Automatic annotation (TrEMBL):
NCBIfam families: hutI. It comes from the Bacteria. This is Imidazolonepropionase. Keywords: Cytoplasm, Histidine metabolism, Hydrolase, Iron, Metal-binding, Zinc. Its main location: cytoplasm. The lineage of its organism: Bacteria, Pseudomonadati, Pseudomonadota, Gammaproteobacteria, Pseudomonadales. Its EC number is 3.5.2.7.
């Protein structure tokens, strides 16, 4: 139930992390008509601006609503058995080559109805919302037929109607080679380019197109065909690249003006430079790094040196990151990748939004849409420092308080 809507709403005395940094002093924040209408230091209380406003909260830390820019939230079944196999030493790649991994989720997802996928995905979505997410991206990629990829995208769109959240959808037809195309990868890529992408574009089910550029995924030449088809249909481009090896997928994606290259543990300096030149965001996925017990670190120092914006996302998926807690991702980005808490929070707000091509989201600024989180903590860095559910006091979506405790 919306608690507040059209009236002027005021938050007093909040510590603000504006998407890039913490502001120097406690602030007042005014929201009106779904947008941030005022932002000023609390010590200079502005009577005129706040006239007629309802005070909705005070104290604590306010951040932009979190942006989870890379998830595979929609799937059926789970892969707990593979988790155990990997703990016994079987690699993610070996499991994949033996028909498990992504293809195991494909089998479960193909046979699930839209309603079953909604029922399976809603608890995961609710977990993200309870930890501050107001915008997320959801990929397909566990269907791998035209009809079941579109089914996943429809489910993703419906999830965005069932809850107060912005959902962006990404067609990931080139995620794995389905068994019926064994030995005919180029034919499958033709299906993705000539049928899936046009159908998803025609039905307005996808905002972007993604690929898995990897030995167990698709070659750079195959990914390039997918990028060309995406471009021809006016869809944004993203890539899973340099996760397990360096095939140059990030640089290729950058050449196609990709919004982001994601994972990038094996990215080299030439790839970083290509991303910097193209304005491609580096999406760091510490959950997958953690779950796969990876040791190759993404080139954080080079990304900083070249000024490539770093986003941080959950990668929520049944194989490599069965984790639906964005603030844990901020923590892992710091502990595993040595991001500063400020960088990790920017990664889940301003830079996460940029990885989705959403330039007015992920920030607290006058005129921006009022997607906000009020946290029961004293300093923004605490979000990355401690791992603790239940710190979200209020979640504001489009100017409406949707969650308060
Ligand atoms: O982002 N790397 C490829 N895709 C997913 C994993 C998908 C899966 O294992 O189900 C990822 O890690
Ligand atoms: Fe992923």
């Amino acid at each position: 139930m919306p608690m507040h809507s059209t009236s002027k709403q005021l938050w007093r005395d909040v510590q603000v992390f504006d998407g890039l940094a913490q502001l120097d002093e406690a602030m007042n924040v005014l929201v009106e008509d779904g947008r941030i209408a005022g932002l000023w230091p609390s010590r200079t209380f502005d009577e005129a601006l706040a006239q007629g406003a309802v005070e909705v909260g005070s104290g604590g830390v306010m951040t932009p609503g979190l942006v989870d820019c890379h998830t595979h939230l929609v799937y059926a079944g789970n892969r707990a058995g593979e988790f155990e196999q990997r703990l016994e030493g079987v690699s993610y790649e070996t499991i994949a080559r033996n028909g498990g991994g992504i293809l195991s989720s494909v089998r479960a997802t193909r046979t699930a109805s839209e309603d079953e996928l909604i029922a399976a995905s809603l608890p995961r979505l609710d977990a993200l919302l309870a930890d501050g997410v107001t915008t997320l991206e959801i990929k397909s990629g566990y269907g791998l037929t035209v009809e079941s990829e579109l089914k996943m995208l429809r489910v993703a769109r419906r999830l965005g109607e069932l809850r107060p959240v912005r959902v962006l959808t990404t067609l990931l037809g080139a995620h794995a080679l389905p068994p019926e195309y064994a030995g005919r990868a180029d034919d499958y890529v033709s299906l993705v380019c000539d049928e899936m992408i046009p159908a998803a574009a025609r039905e307005r089910l996808a905002d972007a197109v993604d690929v898995f550029c990897e030995g167990i995924g698709f070659s750079p030449a195959q990914c390039e065909r997918v990028f060309q088809a995406a471009r021809a249909h006016g869809l944004a481009i993203k890539a899973h690249a340099e996760q397990l090896s360096n095939l140059g997928g990030s640089a290729l994606a950058a050449r196609y003006g990709a919004l982001s290259a994601d994972h990038i543990e094996y990215l080299d300096e030439a790839g970083v430079r290509a991303m910097a030149e193209a304005g491609t965001v580096a999406v760091l996925l510490p959950g997958a790094f953690h779950v796969l017990r990876e040791t190759q670190l993404p080139p954080i120092a080079l990304l900083r040196q070249y000024g490539v914006p770093m986003a941080v996302a959950s990668d929520a998926n049944p194989g490599t990151s069965p984790i639906c807690m964005p603030t844990l991702m901020a923590n892992l980005a710091c502990t595993l990748f040595r991001l500063t808490p400020r960088e990790a929070l920017a990664g889940m707000t301003a830079h996460g939004a940029r990885a989705l091509g959403l330039h007015d989201l992920g920030c607290i600024a006058v005129g921006a849409p009022a997607d906000l989180c009020l946290w029961g903590i004293r300093q923004p860095a605490e979000l990355a420092y401690a791992v603790q559910a239940g710190r979200l006091r209020q979640r504001v979506f489009n100017g409406v308080v949707t969650y308060a405790r």
